[in-house]
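Predict the 3D structure for this chain.
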Amino acid sequence: MDKVEVVVAHHERATLRVGDVFLKIDADQARTDAEVEAMELAPIPTSEVLWRKPPVLALAALPGTALGRLGEPSTASAAAWAAAGAAARMLHDAPLPPRPGRSADELAAHLDDECEWLLTHDVLPADLVTRNRGIAEAALRPWTPVFTHGDLQVAHVFVDGDEVTGVLDWSEAARGDAMADLATLTLGHEEHLADVAAGYGTDVDLDLIRAWWSLRSLLGVRWLIEHGFDPATPGCEVDVLRSQL
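Done. Predicted structure below.
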């Protein structure tokens, strides 16, 4: 090895890559505990835990490459996207994990706070916030909880050819809404929604996925700004909100 690569770094955690080892440094050990537990329970491939010495968790690199990146066109095949959908279905069909997720009421309260902040600080045009909030509210209904990854973004799904080799970053895994995972997976990659739905099989509600696109984007803008990221990067959260109109 000849370098240390900073994969991601913000106020809550950082991930470094040294050769074929990823070092996750997290100030919240309860979050790391939940991540390791979820990886042990998940019925789909995950990274091997090499060692753990708080606050550091060492994970083996997964083979293959990320399915894609938010804000960039994906070079993965339609079959690879379908395989990601099939992996999500396998996860959602597994026994529920012990960790409870956020309820629709908790998400609604969070949405209220974030929309107020966006408008008060003039971060986004009022009509963009208001109209996306109306779309997002469709997701805030009772759902049958499943084993969700919680942050199933394309950068966390690794593929080799047309096969999923593993899924990263289980720190948000909990009981939740299946459509939330599918929405996160396809956020900013609407052109692959049909592929994911085909791989997932039945029970895919496209309207709810679109509602979750608005919800996730509205909830994420402030966090991204406060942690040094730009949600207005082409193809990212602000563009997703605009595309919803």
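The chain has one domain: 63-243.
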